[in-house]
């Protein structure tokens, strides 16, 4: 028996139902795709946040370990100084490997991590001295035995491009009876134990200052001249080879403007002036953090001490 033929209206209804079914399927697929996209986006963001959080925590752990390595090294710096000065074998006092002017203190336990520390001793002193502050260097070789610096001290100052300024050098020495000490037969000020001598220098364009020496024209000892080192304009030379000088400390104070300085030994290296400490810590995830600290061998007294009057008894105005 032949199937019943659909009438025209029935065919239209059937086609309409098929079209609606197709549209519903497309909508369902679209909803599924959008839901997957949103879900993947949320999951990706959560993973990203988790990764960032983990990296932040690991970074903080590494940084804390590197800081801890610096603190541990500073607490043992005296022993490290001795080992570097004497050229002691590994682990003599500091537990570090000494090589020339360096100490390597590797795999130091800091909490649940380890840090590798490198300490470099530098016998040159380079810095910018702010106005109102003082730079200070030591002229004593710690030994043992302790000895005075026997060479020529070079003070280069005022970098090219810096504003014109002036500086004062204060040489502090041990007092010895009947000795021409402190770079002069009669130092500016003397006490039972110490004496000091002060020298003030001006740059080229500053004039009319009483008591300041000109670095361009000829000046009495210690001489100041045009510097030959690239980057600095002037150079002051202090010949401390005379054993009667007994110089212990040099203080440098700027006037009018901050001044950049480079202090080194000419012929004979200076005693160690700066210790540069580098501490590196690395986590299991490979995150590395480094902390660098510099420490002067001789901490500088504040500039106010240059204006302090000391007396064993009462001071009468």
From TrEMBL:
Residue ranges spanning the membrane: these are: 24-43
Q: Which residues form the Type 4 fimbrial biogenesis protein PilX N-terminal domain?
A: 21-71
State whether keyword Membrane applies: yes
Query: Keyword set for this entry?
Result: Membrane, Transmembrane, Transmembrane helix
Instruction: Specify the protein name.
Output: Type 4 fimbrial biogenesis protein PilX N-terminal domain-containing protein
The species this protein belongs to is Candidatus Curtissbacteria bacterium RIFCSPHIGHO2_02_FULL_42_15
